[in-house]
Amino acid sequence: MERDDLIEYSLDTHHSEEEGKKIRSKIVKVTILLTLITVIEVALGAFIKQSADFWPFVKWTFIVLTLLKAGYIVMVFMHLGDERKWMRNVILIPYATFIAYLIFIALWEALAVGDAWSSVAA
Amino acid sequence: MAGQTTQLDSKTLWGGKESPFQTSYGKLMMWFFLVSDALTFSGLLVAYGFVRHDTLGAWPIGEETFDSLPGLGHGYPLIYVALMTFILIVSSVTMVLAVEAGHRMDKKGVVKWMFATVIGGFFFLGSQVWEWSHFIHGSEFGRIELSDGSEAIVKGHFGEIESFTVMQAGLHHKKGDVIKDDLMHTFQHAAENGDIKAGGLIHLHDGSVAKIKKAHDHDMELTIKYTAAKSKRKIGDKISGKEAEKQYYASLYSGIPKVTYGAKWFEDGEHWLPTKNEYGPQQYAHFFFFITGFHGFHVFSGVMINILILFGAMKGTYHKRGHYEIVEKTGLYWHFVDLVWVFVFTFFYLV
Predict the structure, then answer these.
(1) Other C-beta atoms within 10 Å of A104: how many?
(2) Where are the domains of chain A?
(3) Residue A30 and residue A115: Cα distance in Å, rounded?
């Protein structure tokens, strides 16, 4: 039975040749950007030793660049940036909140465990 | 679309007509699946972070562990994983181009880009096979336990083994035989069992003893990764040049198993046990295999799904349906796989 009360959202994403051109040029731009970020990361990783004084700065640079890369993948490649605002929020907010908490609690605890181990060893 | 929403009363809305997210059911469910999968991967990476933070100094450093290229040997830190990352990014791009072609109902475009995506996926999987194999077999020097009980990883150029000349006959080899096959494998196996003795004599399986003919090593450098209670050395200390060679070969020739290559499992009676790995604490190899393995499994299933969709597109199934949303949905999964790799790359290889 055909149902006429259902809305076919699958057709909403169709676009014309001109819009396609714009989207493709955006894809190319994002590709270049992601490649550039990866090159910077590898160069930093290969040439700066973890024993360097400013290593914490490099480490945070890595984390920021990674989040930037992830952002572009999710927002552009996965089109989450084009979805409705609350769909975006429903996906991102619970996830981000839980993971931020998990990272905080796990690493905090790990450092305490590490301290305990080194005091046993000493 | 936005204009339409205002015309609906609450009765119609809750009657299941207009979706609040204006997205199809399948796409939304794919997103929810990806969120749960993302939680799994985050859990794994956070567990990795936990172990890493509580074993501070001894943890291996990515640029030291992963510094080889196929056929070119050592001295190329992170280049190989960077290549893998690039392959995955490119296959993500071809995927997003397939999705874009689908939105224009361009069947030829979808088929072309899906095909490229599948090829990219296979390239990544192949790279991972090499990476695993290299990780399992380890470097030519291995990790060495020094005379004071501390342990060091070894960098430098390993002089090639040219031959073994049998000095003392065994079951198989006669005196004076020159062995030229499977040298590196035999050498490492003997070293792991402490069967290499002073003066470069190797005790072979059949009971014969042979003299090792080997080119000179170059630029050897030892980095201390573990210290023992009686040792004065600290983690991170480096020993190089003649002193490094002296220390290394004193341990190798000691007749006691003091060297570890790669990350292997060995059979102990009836059980398979994980042995120490060359790179650092045992958990390091566990996490390496589990996280990259779990990700690789995702890539593998992604490639399989992509192949199915490629065939569907070639047959014209989606064209008849009037939309290529299925390409978009598989695309979401494929991009997610790329997304996970971005984090694995940072937290496993970079920091």
Answers:
(1) 11
(2) 19-82, 84-122
(3) 43
Residue B256 Cα distances to A6, B192, B282, angstroms:
75, 9, 21
Question: Mutual orientation of helices B79-103 and B325-344 as an angle, nearest 10°?
Answer: 160
Q: Do A114 and B19 touch (CB under 8 A)?
A: no
Q: How far is Cα B152 from Cα B221, in angstroms, rounded to an integer?
A: 9
Domains of chain B (ranges, CATH numbers): 24-138+282-350 (1.20.120.80), 143-271 (no CATH)
User: Looking at residue B160, what DSSP letter applies?
Assistant: P
Cβ separation A41–B50 shorter than 8 A: no
- Which among A102, A78, A101 is positioned nearest to A91, based on CA atoms? A78
Cβ neighbours around B323 below 10 Å, total: 20
pLDDT at B16 (0 to 100): 57
Q: Rounded to 5 degrees, what are φ and ψ at B19?
A: -75, 135
Nearest Cβ partner for A73 among B50, B100, B335: B335
What mean pLDDT do residues B336-341 have?
96
Distance CA B223, CA B320 (A): 63
Strands (E), chain B: 68-69, 73-74, 143-145, 151-157, 161-168, 178-179, 196-197, 201-203, 209-214, 218-226, 238-240, 259-260, 265-268, 271-274
Q: Which residue has the higher pLDDT, B50 or B1?
A: B50
